[in-house]
Amino acid sequence: MALGNIIDSSGAQVHIEEDGSQSAVRPGFLNAATSHRFPILYRDEHGVMHDIGSWTVYSSRHVVIGKVAYGFTLILINSVIKTLVLWFIFLYVFRRWLGQPITRLADFVRELDLNQMETPRSIHLPGRRRHELHFLADAINLMLAKLHRHTIHNHALYKELEQEKQSLSALNRSLELRIAERTRDLAQANEQLRSLSLTDGLTGIANRRSFDETLEQEWRRSMRHGTPLMLAFIDVDWFKPYNDHYGHLAGDAVLRQVAQTLRQSIARVGDTVARYGGEEFAIIAADTDGQAGADMLRRMCDAVHALAIAHAGSAMGRITISAGVASCNPGQPGAGLDGLLQAADAALYRAKMEGRNRVVLATELIVSP
Ligand SMILES: Nc1nc2c(ncn2[C@@H]2O[C@H](COP(=O)(O)OP(=O)(O)OP(=O)(O)O)[C@@H](O)[C@H]2O)c(=O)[nH]1
C-alpha cells in the first residue's frame, strides 16, 4: 500500500490519494519524492538469513526539510535559552563576587589622599571565602601601612629639620649681628688707622702724607673752580738752640703748642694745618690769594708770639715762627704745583734771612720749572 508521493516501478513520481487515485506530482524541488527501501530478513533454524521481502518508506523533500528545520529551530531556541540563562547566572555571580568588590576597591583607591597618611587607612572586603580580590585588598593595606609608617617617619624628620632650620636661622641672625658689629668695628678701626696714617703722632695735626694728598686735591679743585690756592711754610725760629738749651722733650712740647696755636688760627674750617717735617709746618688754604694768606700767617705769628714761651737762645727771648707765603691760580698758564712749593719755600727762606718772626709773601711769578 502506498500513500502520498511515491516512485512507481517505472521510476516515475506519482501522488496517491487515500482513495487510491493517482495524480502527477507537482513539479518543484521541495515536491520531489524520496524513498528508502528496508529489506525484510528472516533467519531460519539453521541461522541462514533469507530475504523475504522489503518495505519502502517514501517522503517528499519538503517534509524532510520541514522536519530538519523544525529540529534546528528547537535546537536554536534551546541554545538561546541556555545561553541567556548562563549569561544571567554569570552576570549575577560576577556582580555578586567580583563586580562589587572591584568597585569598592576602585572607590577606596580613588578616594585615597596620599597627603593625609597620618591616620592609618585600610580596606576589608566582605565574604568568608577569600579569593584574589581579598589578596589584592591585603596588598593595598600592606602598601598603605608602609606609607603610613613612612609618613610618620617623614613628619618626625620634617619637625627635626624645622627645629634645625630655626636654630640655624637664630645662629645666622646672631652671626649676622656679630658680622655687622665686626664690620662696624673694622670700619671704625680702618677709619682710625687711616686717620692715624694721616695724623702726626707728636702734634695731632695732619702729617706729611696728609699734606701731600690734600695739596694735590686742593690744586685740582682750585684748577676746576678757577680760584687761587695759598700755600705757606712755617718754621720755628732758633729751634736747635731751644732743644739744646731746654731739652728735646721741652722742644716736643713747644711743637705741640705751636701746632695747636696754628690750628686755632686758621681762617676757615677747610684750611689745612700740617706738620711738614721736623719743626716745619705748612698751611693750605683754598680760594685764598697771597694777601689774605699773608694776613692769616701774620695772625699766626702773633699768636705764637703771644704764647710767650721763653727762649733764651732767641733774640726775641721767646718762641717765634717765620713763614713764607705763596699763592697762585692753578688754572693760570704756566702755573704748577712744584712752582708753588718752591715759591713758598723761597719766601720762608727770605723771612729767615730778613730776621725771623715775620711773614714774607712770594711776589715772583710761579712758573713750572
Ligand atoms: N724736640 C724736637 N726737635 C726736633 C724735632 N724735629 C726736628 N727737631 C729739631 O729742630 C731743629 C731744627 O734746627 P735747624 O734746622 O738747624 O734750624 P733752627 O735751629 O730752628 O734755626 P732756623 O730755622 O734757622 O731759625 C733740629 O735741632 C732738630 O733736631 C722734633 O720732633 N722734636
UniProtKB/TrEMBL annotation:
GO process annotations (BP): signal transduction
GO cellular component: a single term: membrane
GO MF term (any one): diguanylate cyclase activity
Domain of life from the UniProt record: Bacteria
Listed transmembrane segments: 68-94
Keyword tRNA processing: no
Swiss-Prot/TrEMBL catalytic activity: 2 GTP = 3',3'-c-di-GMP + 2 diphosphate
Coiled coil: 154-199
E.C. number: 2.7.7.65
SUPFAM superfamilies for the chain: Nucleotide cyclase
Keywords assigned by UniProt, alphabetized: Coiled coil, Membrane, Transmembrane, Transmembrane helix
Pfam families named in the record: GGDEF
PROSITE patterns in the cross-refs: GGDEF, HAMP
Domain HAMP, chain residue ranges per copy: 96-152
Entry annotated with the keyword Membrane: yes
Domain GGDEF, residue spans: 227-364
Listed name of the protein: diguanylate cyclase
Lineage: Bacteria, Pseudomonadati, Pseudomonadota, Betaproteobacteria, Burkholderiales
